[in-house]
Amino acid sequence: MFLILDALAAGEGRRLSSLDVIGAGPRAVAGVLEMFDLDYGVMRVEDFLRGGAKGFDILLVSAMSMDEPAVLRAAKRFRGIKVIGGPITSDPRVVSRLGFNLGIWGEGERALEELLRRGLAEGKVPLDLKDLPNVIRSDGTIIGRANLSPDEYRRFRPSVEAIRFYSSIPHYSSGRVYVEVVRSCSNFNRPKIEASEEMCGLCGACYGVDLRKRLVCPQGIPPGCGYCSIPSLYGPPKSRDRGSILEEIRGLVEIGVRRVVLSGADFLEYGREELASGPLTHPSEPGPNARAIEDLLEGIKSISEDHLLFFEVENVKPCLVNEEIAMILGKYLKGTPIHVGVETGDPGHADLIGRPCGPEEALRAIKLLREVGLRPYAYFIHSLPGQTDRVVKRTLRAMERAFEYGAEKITVYRFRPLPGTAFQGYKVSPDKGSKIISRKAIELNRRRKEELVGSTIRVIVAPSAGRGIYAYPLAGGPVVKLRVGRRFRPGMVLEVRVTKVISDRLVEGAPIERRSS
Question: What pairing do the DSSP bridges indicate for beta strands 479-482 and 506-514?
């Protein structure tokens, strides 16, 4: 029997943030197992490390690079065949380093399907691995690398039933369940900080719109922003068909899911490949497919009106946000969060790190999205290669402008060099400027939270997590610590009045009305 271990964002073995997130990866793995009518279970790595699991012969782990400590602990405890996949295997050496029998690089559906056909379904480590791309041997060597074609991608369906296994924290009845609608990113620019100016002048691919020419860099620089491995792992973007997405969401809400996030590196990539004359390797040419986007949102809106479903999109690339798209998003997603990457406030720095658009485009997108009723979250990264005092100064100003334009939250990440990226060999060196950027985000976020005091919001009760009772705003926002003297059933929907700000991430709320769940 197979055990799918969800280690995504577990780090050392305990998630410290996004405790209500249920990622799409483990359900994609379960979908492949269901094609073979195989029995399986799904566990969070935290639950496995706490209590173990019996009756499982084969372990399938989904993890990110940051999760290596938790995965190592889990691998040592499991006796049986072990296979690892997800972004963590962008460094193929992790397979041997953590003691796994096999690994899967990049897109895993077809590779897992073939492994099952070649013996894994019968509990055997397949010996015949020739002509099987994306499989990593136990010694860390990779056989070959390939991306799914759009048709292959659409052939695989994520499991709906697997969501039932999320019955602790996060619980499927209160968690944000991610539904993948489009995979990968079209930013095939390269970070110029890594490039030879002379060779770039001779090539010119990153400056043009020849989609096939943009696939390959003569200097061997991975595509995309220097800190991101998505384009190199998954290739040009490809979208799922509308019918399969709607079918998946209907199945989830029938089980009891209340919150869905339409996920993808950029939601506005959805359907763009239909407009392109080649592989979708340009971040803004052609523009967004407004018809496909509206058709999808209209279908999901219809489901939400028939059920108690709250949905939002995840990320949007600023260079694809125009007035038409903003109006469509405002029509179907008014009042929901939407994430916009700014990363740096210096346009020259943005170009150096491979950004597909500059800070002015990002700030314009934030302003436009706020004007149509969405609640933008602005993302920044400190300690990136090329960060100077001038970059810090301009980034601080960009953060303030994002706040002035209505950004509901300023999220700052510390740069982390990831395997498979242009910046994988860089060292992180937070300096005084990095600390100032972090403090500015805390200050702005606390000011925004103060604006919530006295307001009424709808929340969904989370499972108990030690001391205190917590809830998540249905339309997004800070976690709410409930000021109550009794417990509520997870998944219950309440109205609360925000009474005070506890931190830049947490507010206190008092229930004022109980709603049917």
Answer: parallel
